[in-house]
Sequence to fold (507 residues):
Amino acid sequence: MNRLSCARSMKTSVAIVLLLCTFACCAAEHPAQFPPPLDSYGDVQLSLSAKLRHRAATEPLNVAATIIFALAIIHTFLAPRIMHVAHRWRGVHRQGLEAQSSAPPRHKDAVNDVSFKAEAAHFFGEVEATFGIWVIPLLLAFLIFKDWSTAEHYLSNTVHFTEPIFVVVVMAIAATRPILIAAESAMRAVARLGGGTPAASWLSILTVGPLLGSFITEPAAMTICALLLARSFYELRPPPTFAYATLGLLFVNVSIGGTLTHFAAPPVLMVAGRWNWDIAHMFTHFGWKAAAAVLASNALYYLWFRKQFVRLQPDVPPQTADERWEERKDPVPVWITIVHSLFLVWTVFTAHTPPFFIGGFLFFLAFTTATEHHQNPVMLRPAFLVGFFLAGLVVHGGLQAWWIAPILGSLRENALFFGAVVLTAFNDNAAITYLASLVPSLSDSMKYAIVAGAVTGGGLTVIANAPNPAGQAILLKYFPDGVSPLRLFLGAFVPTVVATFFFLLFK
Fold:
């Protein structure tokens, strides 16, 4: 009897498995497209509120995806508090280990016990991990409202991860020792014009670096500027207000500083091809205004904090044999710097073709191994964290067109500018401009307002501009309790107002 029951149960289980497999295969052959094209809603004649209600009722997954996206944004604001809790738990765990008997380890190079809850909290406190974490609830929402094949189709065929992958590669190359020493030498030459003081270095990095981003891409400029600021400014332990003001200024300057060309800033990249914008168009409509705003913002903050610079005079320690290898001052042969620069140029030139720049990156890693005595370890962890952040943001951002596009399409020019600034603070500015490019019948002035607003608001939050997470990842150790979203917003507010002045006054 038991054997018969087991056989029947086994047959039933096999039948269920086969049925599920058949259903999955059939679903995979004809996966539902989500999100649906905006024109498929047939709601062109409806008012804005009626249009949003109609789209929410037609596709309930729209609402679920937006709620999950909002929770992910809230998570980014709570991340510093979670990180603080993780550090406290780590300290408690460390004290507990020290209180135990100090018996010698049983194995060579043994790793001490770690606190699982502290490490889990640390992961949830990483800003770069937030959007990736919330992709899991998003997949569950797909399963509830749609099916697995729809989720698979969305991630495989609708979402494009080229930009996150590109940021990982360009960050890793830009952070190498030859590139950093070359950039530092160039900015030090500019700083010498001001006497080589910390103030002169600060001005040089925050002026030359962001504008250089128009040619080496914003992610590369952010990486280089953040690393140089870490050495010449943040290592001098500025007061928190000055530290946040500099971080906000860096984010805003990099966001607008990449608009001298049409290939360096992610929000410009999203629309340049669709709207036929070239270098001449970008410089005449955006570039010179951005450069003027960078200079004006730097001058304002310099005047405001000029007394703080006096207290930041470096206390240069004597050279000792204990100097860390990564901090050595040995020169790098010119030919190695040239090869690194060529790899960086290749990555920028092939930014839209992952097989090319990924293949180039593999050759680059081989080259760094062959010249290891002139290199420092390639910084992959910060690059991968930023890539993970952007990948999660792209996944969530691609599902917000149902409400962002009609809101943008309903605004007038000035309202469109400020609307783009506000929306950028809660979504990547590249996603804002991409969604705007889907709106039909936009005038040239409206296109200008959207892009200008998107780059202007790119420093208000960490998620506002794709390179911001890279800068935060590099400078995070100088903010013991994590980067406060409110204090970052306040630090970026003045340069955002300055950029607004130039972009609106000189239309």
Summary: Confidence is low (pLDDT under 50) at residues 1-7, 16-28. The first helix runs from residue 2 to 29. The chain has two domains: 57-95+115-158, 162-309+330-505.
